[in-house]
Design goal:
The protein has about 290 residues and is of the alpha/beta class. Helices cover about 50% and strands about 15% of the residues. It contains 12 helices and 8 strands. It has an 8-stranded mixed sheet, with helices on both faces. Strand 5, helix 6 (about 120-125) and strand 6 form a beta-alpha-beta unit. Helix 8 (about 190-215) packs antiparallel against helix 9. The longest helix is centred in the last third of the chain and has 28 residues, at about 190-215.
C-alpha cells in the first residue's frame, strides 16, 4: 500500500509504552524501506520522569523524535497532520475539556488508541467528524495495536468507520501496516476483538512463565526454556495462521499414540484449563464493554 500523503507530521499525545512502541517500529521501518513519505515525529508526555523513560526507550533514535514534557501541548498539536491519542481512556473528557483542544484538533486525522472508547464517543468529545453535515471536518480512526509494534510484528485492530475520509483512512492504514498485520472489524465488535487480543497476551504471559518455571525446576536453564517455549508457540501459531491448520487438526497431527503431546493435553484438561481459558476471555470481553 502506498501512502497518499507525501509528507506529514505525527504527534503522539500521551506517549506511553504503546506510543513509544509505535514510534520505535515506524522509525525502524521507514529507515530501512525504499520510497517513503517524509514524516516528522513529535512525542508529548506529561512529566520529566516519562520523558526520561521515553528517551531511554528510543535510544539512538531519540534524535529523530521531538520529545516534549509538559507545557502547552496545543502549540505542538497545531502543526500536526496526524494526532495519535495515547493517554488513559478515563481522562478523555478532561482532555477534550481543555480550552482550545477541540478547535486545535479540527481538520486533522485523530487516531485513538483508547481501549473501550468508540468513534461516536470521540466525536462527542472533540466535535464533528467526517460525514457530519455541519462544522469543520475532523477525521477519526479507532485503532488498537499490540506491543509487537516495537519490532514491526503488531496485530493491529482497526474499526471500520465512516468518520474518516478515504485518504485519511489510507494514511492510517499505511502507518500501522508498517508495524505488522492489520485486521479490520465492524465498530460494534471492536470491544470484543480488543478483549480477545488482551486476553491472549495475558494467557501467553502466564503460560510461558509457568512453562519456564517448570523447565528450570527440571534442569533446563531459564534462557533455554524461554527460547524453547516462545519458539514453540510461534511455530504452532504459524501453522494455524498460515498453514491452514485448526487447533483440532494440529492436536491430531501432533498426538501420536502414547505420546507426550496428548498426555500433556489430558493433564491440562484434568486441571480444567479449557473452561478456565474460556472464562478468562469472556471476563475480558465483559470488562472491556464496561470500561
Amino acid at each position: 500500500m502506498e501512502c497518499p500523503w507525501p509528507s506529514f507530521h505525527i504527534v503522539v499525545y500521551g506517549c506511553g509504552f504503546m506510543g513509544t512502541a509505535i514510534l520505535q517500529g515506524l522509525l525502524k521501518r521507514t529507515q530501512n524501506a525504499g520510497k517513503q513519505p517524509e514524516i516528522k515525529y513529535t512525542a508529548w508526555v506529561r512529566s520529566q520522569t516519562s520523558l526520561k523513560r521515553l528517551q531511554h526507550e528510543l535510544g539512538e533514535a531519540c534524535g529523530q523524535v521531538h520529545c516534549v514534557a509538559g507545557g502547552d501541548a496545543l502549540e505542538i498539536i497545531k502543526s500536526a497532520d496526524v494526532v495519535i491519542l495515547g493517554f488513559p481512556p478515563d481522562v478523555l473528557r478532561s482532555v477534550s475539556d481543555l480550552p482550545g483542544m477541540c478547535a486545535t484538533l479540527q481538520e486533522k486525522l485523530i487516531i485513538s488508541l483508547l481501549a473501550g472508547v468508540s468513534t461516536d464517543q470521540l466525536v462527542d468529545a472533540f466535535g464533528w467528524g467526517f460525514g457530519y453535515p455541519n462544522g469543520p471536518i475532523t477525521h477519526y480512526l479507532r485503532v488498537i495495536p499490540s506491543i509487537g509494534a516495537k519490532i514491526n510484528d503488531s496485530v493491529t485492530l482497526i474499526a471500520e468507520t465512516k468518520s474518516a475520509g478515504p485518504n485519511e483512512q489510507k494514511v492510517g492504514a499505511w502507518i500501522f501496516e508498517q508495524l505488522g498485520q492489520l485486521q479490520w472489524f465492524p465498530e460494534p465488535l471492536m470491544n470484543e476483538a480488543t478483549a480477545v487480543g488482551a486476553a491472549c497476551n495475558a494467557l501467553m504471559m502466564v503460560a510461558v512463565d509457568a512453562i519456564v518455571d517448570a523447565s528450570v525446576a527440571e534442569g533446563l536453564s531459564r534462557s533455554a526454556a524461554l527460547k524453547l517455549a516462545t519458539s514453540s508457540l510461534r511455530s504452532a501459531s504459524g501453522l494455524m495462521l498460515n498453514g491452514g491448520m485448526t487447533p483440532e487438526s494440529l492436536k491430531e497431527a501432533m498426538s501420536s499414540p502414547k505420546g507426550i503431546t496428548i498426555s500433556s493435553v489430558l493433564e491440562l484438561e484434568r486441571g480444567h484449563a479449557h473452561p478456565a481459558i474460556s472464562d478468562t476471555v469472556r471476563h475480558a470481553i465483559h470488562y472491556t464493554r464496561n470500561m
